[in-house]
Structure formats: structure tokens, C-alpha cells
Amino acid sequence: AVSMACPVYMEYYKVNNAISHHTKDFENVSEGALVLRRGQVFTINIRFRERLFDLNKDRLILYFDFGKSPSVPKGTKGLLRVNGPNRGGLPAHQFTWHTKDVRLVESDDLMLEIYIPANVPVGLWKCYGEAYYSDGQERPRFEKVPFTCEQPMYVLFNPWCQDDVVYMADEMWREECILNESGIMWGGTCKSTKGRCWVYGQFDKVILPSCEHVLSCSGIDDSQRGDPVEVCRIISQMVNSSDDDGIVQPCWDGNYKDGTTPAKWTGSCKILEEYKSTGWKPVKYGQCWVFAGMVTTICRALGIPCRPVTNFISAHDTNKTLTVDKYFDVFGEKIEGGPAGDVFDSVWNYHVWNECYMRRTDLPAGNDGWQVIDATPQRQSAGMYRCGPASVKAVFRGDTGLNHDTGFVFSEVNADILHWQEDEQSDWGFSLLKCLKYKIGAKILTKLPDKLIQDKKVCYEDIVHSYKPKEGTHQERLAVLTAMRGSQIFQQYMDQMKKLEGCSDVLLDLSDIEAVPIGDQFIVTLKMKNTSDDPRTVAGTITVNAIDYTETRSVLIKKDRVFMELVGQQETEILLYVKPEDYIDKMIDDNIKVYAVMSVKETHQMWCEEDDLVIEKPSIKFETQEVPKLGQQCDITLKILNPLDIPLTNCLLAVEAPGLMPRKSIDIQNIEPKRTEFIREKMLPVKLGEKRIVATFSSSELQDISGTFSVNVVE
């Protein structure tokens, strides 16, 4: 009889493997999980009992299974013959499971170095094995003894491996886009940008199990989960809840009573904790930066280099004309929905999407590098609310036919804004007032790597020239007009552009206001000059509206009807005063839109201009009295100013600081007018290095106040 000796212990060297695989920061490692990257070797030790394992006589086979129906041909099963005939199975190369080293240690331990193929599916794998013990005869019989790896085994993409399609050579960007746990996304307006800090928290213990759930429930084939193009496309679909039980439910109507106001979130972890604890029900609510923050978290956790990107003055072209059309009546007031109520084009002050870095083996050469994915549910792509990945290089060239959704991204950064006004003399009832050719995609910002920020005065980079040629160049206009040729209104557009070149002897100019501190008055100024020697009659409307950042909701703040008779060569100006009491109780976000629409009676000259401005709110300030030390409690003070002439009520402060303190929400007493509230909190640093604190504040009277602070934890 064969004396059975079975493996009794498998040592996975979780920490050592995690260090070499750049996964040591994952909290799952300290809880027993093996977190590895493909395209790299990991080490395990198998200890036997009762009898020694004889490498020359006995046999050992390891299996690695992925998904519902593991299959070697599909790449979802790894079969590894550790020793004996056909050792290693398939010939060893970068896309097969194989052992790099097999040796006995201290006579009863078998040490294995195992290579994970650089193209395997990413997610949760199962490891098990079979030991076959020989009876020692010339024609031996073998006794099979199965064993299983009980710990979870996650395999991730590997941007450090040149054989992986997500390989990123730039060390600074790789560290930023994989390992940085927090970052900044930009909002506000093109003229007055505002940073919004976000804790990605990709190493939190809730992240990897949540990623696994999302991907396994998404409908993606297990064999496709090694392809970052397919994985990113699914992520852009599953982060929003518009088609399925995705992670975050969108809301732009301002009614957040049964959920969390998007501006109150400080990071992704709390959202995923709620998603998991409610049985994977969508979490209420999110807007574009929430979706982008969540995408960044998931991609970085899975090993796909990812960064959020903000496009300022972002076009939402619903009818694929590469134009955003706005309509005004004869009095200069905007017609919502256009003349037939079926035009839903819009221009967002800003829109945040993501870029992921990879080789595009599915596209012709010249499309590798940064790829746009967008989880904000704006439109359907192949029947689902998702967008991308679209090659940024293809967007630059105007190569709109390439997968996926390149044409939509092209329009977001290149569309023309057309202003139309009712005109009885026009064949179809409207004439073109103005074409804004160079307004859309004015800036495209992303955060610089931490190491670069230390040497620069700003912490962002404007990457607009990676998306399109310089505005106004022949190359840029040619790309847009070529793309427009397929649209139904192209000829109409060209005819109207010629009409714009008609008589315009009255010069009009609308003041450009960048930002107004909340509680201050501001003045809208319209200058006009009659450059002819004949009298001119100018009539129209100036409107000031509070809007949300997508311009889908608006509240009228003030309106002024203009009627001005100008003699030859006369100059004058119209002043519209907007006081704090006019706008404070009407604000939706921080944004105000000014429209001025004018016409000249004698020449039929028509003119329109618009201006965006931001109402600036104070940020949360931070103060520490000592240098934070590892494992030692210290204080931090948060300071919140009430800039208004009324008290702030129902005050809530949310704080998130990975490695420094637990996430918490704090109810605060009413803050009196013009007073500063001081909140003292305790920190207990558990990780060395630079750590970031992110806080948001809201009240019934004032929302979307935020702040961030960095500390360097020392020993």
C-alpha cells in the first residue's frame, strides 16, 4: 500500500509577493489575500507531511481557474505540471503559465516560482493542486492527493511589465495613475477653474471585492477580462446605473432628498461600502466628477493606468451635427428645446471623463496611449449607456470611425456653437446670429503627478493640444468641416455662415466677468458703438440666469429689455446691476449665465453673446501644530467661514483621510453670519509619507464647500 503524504501547509509569502508586485498597499493583503500582477513571477512554498516529496519520482500539478467555466484554450484555466513528463505543459513564454524555479528546501518544503502569463483575465482566481505519490516500482502506480489554496487570489493588470498591453514606461505618470490614492478634478468655468479633491482609495479592502462583483455581473465574457479595451468599456457602463444595477445613480434635477447630494461625497470608498452593504443596489446620487472618481478608483485598483480629465466648455451634441444649436425668440429670450421642442443639445461648463493608458491592438497603428472612457450616462453606445475607449490620437486626427465612440468625443471638444434667432424673412423662420467656432474644448485639464507639482506653481496640465490642432488653424477647421459634411444641416450651415458676413456697423461688446465672491454685487456691462454716420436703433434683451453646470436647469435672476437710439459715431454702455439679494437664494450650483441678444432695426444686423461666471465660495482651511508621526495621535483643526449675512443651519462636515483617520460625518452647530467655526479632530497616522485630508461642508443655505490638506507622516 502507498503511504499517503498530503500537503498540510501552503505558504504564499503574501507580503513579499505584494512588495515585488507593487500591491503591498492593498488592505486585502493584510487580511490574507494574495494580490498579484500578471506578467510576473510569484513565490509559494508547499510543505508535505509523513513522507518527503521526491522530485524524481512523485508528481505535482497545479491548476489556476478563472470564472464560471475555466478553459485552457480560452485562457481562463492554467495547468502547470511542476515536474515529471511534460513539465510545464505548453512551451514556456510570456503568455503561458510556467515555473521559473522548482527546488526542495530543508528536505520537506517545495519552493516554486510561478510565472503568470501577461495576458490572463484579471480578477479573482482559484488555485488548487494534485500531488501524485509513486509506489517506487519500475512501472509505478500513483496515489492522487488533492489540495486547495483557501486564500483569495487576485490577479491584476501590470503596467510595469512590457509584455502587458497596459505597460507604461513613464515612471512618474505610472506612479500617479496606479498608486496615488487621491487626486483633484477640476470644475468651475474655463476662466475661473476650481479644484475638487477626491479620495480614490483604491487599496481599501472594499474595492477589489466590489470590482470582482461588478465585472462578474456585467455580462462580459470571462475570456475578455484580460483585454483592457473590453474591461474599460464595461467599467464605463457599470459605474452608472442607467442600464443595470450599476454603482452610482445619476441625478441632475436637484432633488437629492432620498440620497446623498453629489457634492457631499469625498471619495469612492464610502459609495462602494454603501453599494455592497445594500446588496449591490445603486447608490444615490452622482454627477460627472463622481462617475469619473469611481472609474479612476476601479481602473487603478485593477492595474489600468487612469486619470480624470476635465473638458471646459464641453459640447453635448445630441443629433450628431457637430454643432450645438441655441434658439432665441424675436425679443432675445432663449427658446428651450428649440422651435419644435426637440433640440436637446447643451454646453456644459465642464465635463469630467477619464483617460486610460494602453496599447490598442484592435485598431490600426498610431492609436496607442491615452484612451477616453466616460461613465457619465449622456448617450447610448451599442444600446448601453457607456462611452469609449476612444483613442485620443484618433480624436486629434478626426478619425471618427474608429472604435469606440470617437465621433462623440470629437464633438465634445470640437463642436461649433450656433445661435439662431426668429426671423420672418428667413425661409425656415430662423437666421444665424453667431457662430462660436473656438469656444468648445477651451481647456482640458488633468492633475500633474505629485513629483512634478513640487517644482511647479500649478498642479494641473492643459492637455487640449493632444485632442485637437491649435484653434483657428487650417488643420483644425478642415477636421471639423470634413466631419460635418455627413450631417443634414451642412449646406444650411454654410449658407448661414455667408449671411453673417453682411452689414455690421454697430459694434457690441459684453463684459467678461470671471468670478464674483459670494455676497458681492456684480455689474453686467454692454458696450455699443455706431461706426456709421447714420442713426441706428438697437433693441434686444440681457438676461442673467442661475444655471447648473450642465445648463439643463436655469432660474432667472434678472432681465433687462434694451432700446437705444444711437446717432452717428455715438458710443454708450448699458449697465445691469446684480445685487446679492438678487441671486443668493436662486443659485443652483455656483454658475451664472449671461445672454445678450441685440438687433439693429435699420440694417437687420443681429448680434448675440454669452458669458459664464462663477460665484466663489470660501474653502475649508486646515491647521496643524505638529508634524504627524507614525502611530502617534495628533490634532488637526478645520476652519469654516460663513460669508453670508444670515446664519448657516443644518451644517454637516464630511472628512476622509486614508492612513490618518477613519471616514466620518460630523454635525455642526449653526454658524453665525460672517463667523468662522473651528472643528478640532484627532489623527492617528498608520502609514508613512505624504497623506491627504479631504473635507466637504454643506448647510441649508450654502452647499458645495470643500477643502484639502496634505501632511507628511514621519517616523
From TrEMBL:
<feature type="binding site">
    <location>
        <position position="416"/>
    </location>
    <ligand>
        <name>Ca(2+)</name>
    </ligand>
</feature>
<feature type="active site">
    <location>
        <position position="351"/>
    </location>
</feature>
<feature type="domain" description="Transglutaminase-like">
    <location>
        <begin position="280"/>
        <end position="377"/>
    </location>
</feature>
<feature type="binding site">
    <location>
        <position position="471"/>
    </location>
    <ligand>
        <name>Ca(2+)</name>
    </ligand>
</feature>
<comment type="similarity">
    <text>Belongs to the transglutaminase superfamily. Transglutaminase family.</text>
</comment>
<dbReference type="InterPro" id="IPR001102">
    <property type="entry name" value="Transglutaminase_N"/>
</dbReference>
<dbReference type="InterPro" id="IPR036238">
    <property type="entry name" value="Transglutaminase_C_sf"/>
</dbReference>
<dbReference type="InterPro" id="IPR002931">
    <property type="entry name" value="Transglutaminase-like"/>
</dbReference>
<feature type="binding site">
    <location>
        <position position="414"/>
    </location>
    <ligand>
        <name>Ca(2+)</name>
    </ligand>
</feature>
<dbReference type="InterPro" id="IPR023608">
    <property type="entry name" value="Transglutaminase_animal"/>
</dbReference>
<dbReference type="InterPro" id="IPR050779">
    <property type="entry name" value="Transglutaminase"/>
</dbReference>
<dbReference type="GO" id="GO:0003810">
    <property type="term" value="F:protein-glutamine gamma-glutamyltransferase activity"/>
</dbReference>
<dbReference type="InterPro" id="IPR036985">
    <property type="entry name" value="Transglutaminase-like_sf"/>
</dbReference>
<protein>
    <recommendedName>
        <fullName>Transglutaminase-like domain-containing protein</fullName>
    </recommendedName>
</protein>
<feature type="active site">
    <location>
        <position position="374"/>
    </location>
</feature>
<dbReference type="Pfam" id="PF00927">
    <property type="entry name" value="Transglut_C"/>
</dbReference>
<feature type="binding site">
    <location>
        <position position="476"/>
    </location>
    <ligand>
        <name>Ca(2+)</name>
    </ligand>
</feature>
<dbReference type="InterPro" id="IPR038765">
    <property type="entry name" value="Papain-like_cys_pep_sf"/>
</dbReference>
<keyword id="KW-0479">Metal-binding</keyword>
<feature type="active site">
    <location>
        <position position="288"/>
    </location>
</feature>
<dbReference type="InterPro" id="IPR014756">
    <property type="entry name" value="Ig_E-set"/>
</dbReference>
<dbReference type="GO" id="GO:0046872">
    <property type="term" value="F:metal ion binding"/>
</dbReference>
<keyword id="KW-0106">Calcium</keyword>
<dbReference type="InterPro" id="IPR013783">
    <property type="entry name" value="Ig-like_fold"/>
</dbReference>
<dbReference type="Pfam" id="PF00868">
    <property type="entry name" value="Transglut_N"/>
</dbReference>
<dbReference type="Pfam" id="PF01841">
    <property type="entry name" value="Transglut_core"/>
</dbReference>
<dbReference type="InterPro" id="IPR008958">
    <property type="entry name" value="Transglutaminase_C"/>
</dbReference>
